[in-house]
């Protein structure tokens, strides 16, 4: 009996060894064989399709746009670049805008290029023939403002020098070559701030390509104050409240700029006189009630005319009840809807760039400020791709009373 059991065990072991050998041989052959179009090779793709990003998933880029580190990778061309400038070490009150680029991208997550048509604009900016690319953030030095300003200028100039896409009818190709010193088309950059000081290196970069430009400045504050150097430091003159004065000293702006939404406390009439010397006219917060939105738009357009123009929007132009996440909040501001309506009325001007600044997410509630900033940037893209302000919905498609 024991002999029979031993023999059975030996035969079983031999059979198992043969099975293992055959399995190994088949595995080797399978590995060497060419891949087949087996439907079961990718069950997810077969059953559910591509791995799309939801509004709350995927890598963090503005509106789920393609993302590239454009400063180091010059293989990507674009018509409009989204660029973050995480800088906030020249503020006078609350810091935190270095997190603005990240916060604005978070606020944009429900936006998407495949679902970007709006009733206000009557179009989707991402299907107008212009390539929009998120170029990430500039890795700025957080300890040396002079170095950080130079890094911003070099980065902005680097992207301005890139080629635009060659797609037919791309809006970014239609105007920039007319104003450029070299007669060539240049990309346009929408910048995510960062405190408002970032506009100084931006204007320095733009000046190399276009010369002095006009500025449309949405803000609660003038930002044209000229400060005396503190402790003998020339760098200390450059803050988020003085950068326009410095830009005027350097000849970076034409004498045809305009503020929109001003309501800050001032020293007195001397501040207004100094502001006018730097080339600005003021549309105050109250003017929207006294004059109406259409007149505000008319005054801005008349002031700018056909000049190349840069648009800079401080999120504190919006009332802090609607956009609390900012460094120097001022009560009594415009609503988000009013700001968006004015931007819509500026389409067709010769924009060479734009920004949203002073978003400081640490002071936000439920991302309301970041969401507003992201939506305004969507309007910037639509504005840059429109040759004129969109007609009202009733003009585009008259209301029909079926009764």
Automatic annotation (TrEMBL):
Transmembrane segments: none annotated. GO terms for molecular function: agmatinase activity; metal ion binding. The keyword DNA-binding does not apply. It comes from the Eukaryota. Keywords: Hydrolase, Metal-binding, Signal. GO terms for biological process: putrescine biosynthetic process from arginine, via agmatine. Residues 1-21 form the signal peptide. PANTHER family: ARGINASE/AGMATINASE, GUANIDINO ACID HYDROLASE, MITOCHONDRIAL. Belongs to the arginase family. Agmatinase subfamily. This is Agmatinase. The lineage of its organism: Eukaryota, Fungi, Dikarya, Basidiomycota, Agaricomycotina.
């Amino acid at each position: 009996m024991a002999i029979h059991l031993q023999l059975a065990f030996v035969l079983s072991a031999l059979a198992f060894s043969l099975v293992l050998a055959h399995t190994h041989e088949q595995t080797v052959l399978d590995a060497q064989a060419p891949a087949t179009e087996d439907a079961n090779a990718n069950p997810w793709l077969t059953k559910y399709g591509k791995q799309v990003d939801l509004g709350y998933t995927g890598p963090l880029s503005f509106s789920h746009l393609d993302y590239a580190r454009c400063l180091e990778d010059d293989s990507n061309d674009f018509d409009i670049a989204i660029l973050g400038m995480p800088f906030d070490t020249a503020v006078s009150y609350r810091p935190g805008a270095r997190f603005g680029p990240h916060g604005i991208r978070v606020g944009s997550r429900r936006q998407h290029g495949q679902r970007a048509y709006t009733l206000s604009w009557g179009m989707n900016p991402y299907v107008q023939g212009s390539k929009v690319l998120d170029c990430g953030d500039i890795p700025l030095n957080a300890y040396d403002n002079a170095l950080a300003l130079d890094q911003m200028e070099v980065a902005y100039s680097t992207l301005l020098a890139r080629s635009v896409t060659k797609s037919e009818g791309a809006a970014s190709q239609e105007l920039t070559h007319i104003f450029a010193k070299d007669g060539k088309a240049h990309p346009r950059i929408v910048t995510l701030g960062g405190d408002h000081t970032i506009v100084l290196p931006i204007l320095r970069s733009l000046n190399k390509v276009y010369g002095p430009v006009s500025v449309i400045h949405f803000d609660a504050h003038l930002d044209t104050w000229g400060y005396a150097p503190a402790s003998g430091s020339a760098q200390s003159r450059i803050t988020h409240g003085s950068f326009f004065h410095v830009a005027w000293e350097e000849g970076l702006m034409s004498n045809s700029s305009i503020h929109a939404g001003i309501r800050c406390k001032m020293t007195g009439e001397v501040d207004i006189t100094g502001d006018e010397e730097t080339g600005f006219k003021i549309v105050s917060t109250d003017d929207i009630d006294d004059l109406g939105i259409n007149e505000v738009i008319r005054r801005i357009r008349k002031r700018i005319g056909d000049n190349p123009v840069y648009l800079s929007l401080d999120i504190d132009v919006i009332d802090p009840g609607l956009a609390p996440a900012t460094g120097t909040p001022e009560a009594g501001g415009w609503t988000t809807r009013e700001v968006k309506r004015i931007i819509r009325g500026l389409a067709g001007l010769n924009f060479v760039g734009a920004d949203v600044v002073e978003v400081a997410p640490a002071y936000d509630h439920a991302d309301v400020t970041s969401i507003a900033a992201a939506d305004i940037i969507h309007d910037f893209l639509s504005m840059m791709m429109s040759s004129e302000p969109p007609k009202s919905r009733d003009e585009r498609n008259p209301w029909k009373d079926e009764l």
